[in-house]
What we know:
The chain is an alpha+beta fold. About 20% of the residues lie in helices and about 35% in strands. Pfam families: TraK_C. This is TraK C-terminal domain-containing protein.
Amino acid sequence: xxxxxxxxxxxxxxxxxxxxxxxxxxxxxxxxxxxxxxxxxxxxxxxxxxxxxxxxxxxxxxxxxxxxxxxxxxxxxxxxxxxxxxxxxxxxxxxxxxxxxxxxxxxxxxxxxxxxxxxxxxxxxxxxxxxxxxxxxxxxxxxxxxxxxxxxxxxxxxxxxxxxxxxxxxxxxxxxxxxxxxxxxxxxxxxxxxxxxxxxxxxxxxxxxxxxxxxxxxxxxxxxxxxxxxxxxxxxxxxxxxxxxxxxxxxxxxx
Length: 255
């Protein structure tokens, strides 16, 4: 056989035998086992526009758009949780095993059951928020939350460090380490606590918890805290639909 021809044949064989992307449909509450390369960078394509990833493994992780690049030398299998950037209610759970194999590409998609559930929740939350005018919806939402109720379609989630909105007021300490996130369609509520660390009564001022998307701030049951007293704090954020949200021009007077 001609050597040049043999080389071409060999290269062609190597190309055709390269691992094809692995396509997986995932469902909530189910852990999906996957095999990745220990020797190379792996590529995980997610159904989320800006995914977040959480794992106890000391993996090298980079996120580009909807794609996660992951490499690791971990000997034992480990779990990876992947969530959308705006919700922790549902997570894709992968049980990763690393082998000495070529680099892998995993393409994840949501099961039909999961998509339907998420769509139903979004529609129910949207109906609740659009049932009255804007101010009425905010008042009703906060009123339900202070009573320990969650509106239909809303998701109650754990509070992660990335979600913290800094509140600052002399004499008060704000704690979101065990906080909650209540996610709706247009609204998202962060729940934490405030404590009076002084030896005199203090009045909390809502303006001390402002951010670019902050719509309302409330303390329950009152804004006044006695020495050592703790109260729940609610920060309501407006998270408009990305496709229909108008572009907002910031005033030059705010700088």
